[in-house]
Write a structure and sequence with these properties.
Blueprint lengths: L10 H15 L11 H8 L3 H13 L3 E2 L8 E2 L5 H4 L8 H32 L2
Antiparallel strand pairs: 1-2
Length: 126
């Protein structure tokens, strides 16, 4: 039995891609809440932090908005059609791997930037 290509993307990138496609297809429309992080973590068999990273990607793209204390991420925009589908056939596996690594680095930079902002706020108040 032949297996398909191995998906080497990080789990949070795969989850973000799935949710982006769901938004583009209309499964989740502008104004809808995405499922709670716990539900998504269970669905994908990952830790809550992995789901948080996936939501952060969508937030960075301007597709969802989160609020402290809210039950989930709210869809605020739909992706462009070309961004929502599967990668185009002319993109090589190497390109897809590099792209997923770039997405991972962007997520890490966002988290570091957020931590720096928090540190700046704490030191400014003193």
């Amino acid at each position: 039995m032949a297996k398909g290509p191995v998906d080497r993307r990080k789990p949070y990138v795969r989850i973000a891609d799935d949710l982006r496609r769901d938004i583009a297809s209309g499964r989740y429309q502008v104004g809808d809440l995405l499922p709670p992080a716990g539900e998504l973590a269970e669905r994908y068999g990952v830790a809550g932090m992995t789901v948080s990273n996936a939501i952060a990607v969508l937030k960075e793209e301007g597709l969802v908005q989160t609020r402290q204390g809210a039950r989930g991420a709210r869809v605020i925009a739909a992706p462009d059609e070309q961004d929502a589908g599967e990668p185009t056939p002319e993109r090589s596996e190497e390109f897809q791997l590099l792209f997923s690594q770039l997405q991972e680095m962007r997520g890490q930079l966002r988290r570091l930037s957020s931590k720096l902002d928090e540190l700046d706020e704490r030191t400014r108040d003193r």
